[in-house]
Amino acid sequence: MTPRAVAKLAAPLLGIVSATMLAPLTLAIVDQQWRSAIAYLVSAAGCVLIALALRRIGRAQNEEIHRKDAIGVVVLIWTVMGVFGGLPFMIEGALLDPAAALFEAVSGFTTTGATVMADIEGLSRATNLWRCEMHWIGGMGIVVLFVAVFPQLGVGAKQLFRNEVPGPTSEGLRPRIKQTAVALWWIYGGLTVLCAVLLIVAGMPIFDAICHAMSTLGTGGYSNRAASIGAYHNYGIDLITGVFMLIAGLNFGLFYACARGRWKTLFQDPEARFYLGLNLVVTLVVAWCILPMHTSILESLRFAGFQTLAVTTTTGFMTEDFDAYPNVARYLLFLCMFVGGCAGSTAGGIKVVRVLLLFKVATRELRSLAAPNVVATVKLGRTAIPPAVISGVLVFVVTYMLIFVATSLLLVALDLELMTAMSATVACLSSVGPGLDAVGPVQNFAVVPAVGKLALCFCMIAGRLELFVLLSVFSRELWRR
């Protein structure tokens, strides 16, 4: 890895991060919240100064970016974003604990939605906007935006894009990587605007609609209401949010295909079919479990469907406390936290395509026991999956579970209850947000000690960067030039 190359590329990225603080800064000035305005002004200025320093360090770097440099840029920017994203919380006074402020910001940018704040409605509008804006920026990824804005990186841009977009495969939508990134952002932005407009039509206040639309498409879950979507008690708002959560959990490459007139692709894609089927089955089971808690089957389906989508898409909104559900429903939703959404979506988790591949590999192994001489290939639809991809999926899942076990063990050692520790870990590793018990939907992560918060920050960044990009930083090979 070449430090000068990393510095050169990280500088404009930090410039973009500072520019995103202009929105909450402007809102704070409009609301005459001067302490908030100072907080975002100082944070944006600090971000610019660091960007200028990095630019000076990397100004003599003319070499093309390589894979090691791309990894360094991605890890650096996601870490620094957490620091500067949390700085306004401390300056404003919303969070005085550095670990808590870092946790809140990392949770925002990684679209996790886990919070340490109890009095959400007591925050300034600027801070609530910033929390949801972090989701929106992190949803598609600041690095993808960078590729769209700075196409002159050439092959280096492709390396950045591959390290940023989640999933076991990295197939572009279009031949040129810059065009791919721009297409993604147009789709992402268009869906966000549509979601906000529909929420306003359904009766949600304009500011609330903007915040929730950004959180929904980013599959984050931050809300400016303590009761989340449940605060509105509006069937239309529940339905619109649920539909857009479902959309955000799908592969954005499918939307591009639909925009080109290939609507059949959406229904022919094996991962999309499995994803839709999984949500349907889980919704029906959860609805059956919670039927005694509601007055009708339709009401039970309404709440079960919303909570299921909030978990499987790793958005983390709520319309009621799913931690109060019967154990079968709670356990099923807990398992769904591991799965997450589709590859190429803004959702987290292991990803539906990996789970589907695991089932197919298991089926192949069972068949080989009965017919050991038959060579069977693993296919998704009509596409044969290369052994290297299957091997990568298996290694990913094993690594994921090892991180889950290690972090859960650490949290238990910090005196957290077992289910609290386990659900907090998977909620952060899969970018879900709320967990169970002490970190449930109506609780927050303030109960986690500072060391635990830092460990969960590691989980959030690792999960957002598909584990290996972050873990490779600890490899000696990465630091060799």
From TrEMBL:
One of its GO terms (molecular function) is metal ion binding. It holds the Pfam family TrkH. It is a multi-pass membrane protein. The keyword Ion transport applies. The keyword Transcription does not apply. The chain crosses the membrane at residues 38-58, 70-91, 134-153, 183-207, 239-259, 274-293, 331-359, 389-414, 450-474. It is found in: Cell inner membrane. InterPro entries: Cat_transpt, TrkH. GO terms for cellular component: plasma membrane. It comes from the Bacteria. Belongs to the TrkH potassium transport family. This is Trk system potassium uptake protein TrkG. It comes from Enhygromyxa salina. The gene is trkG.
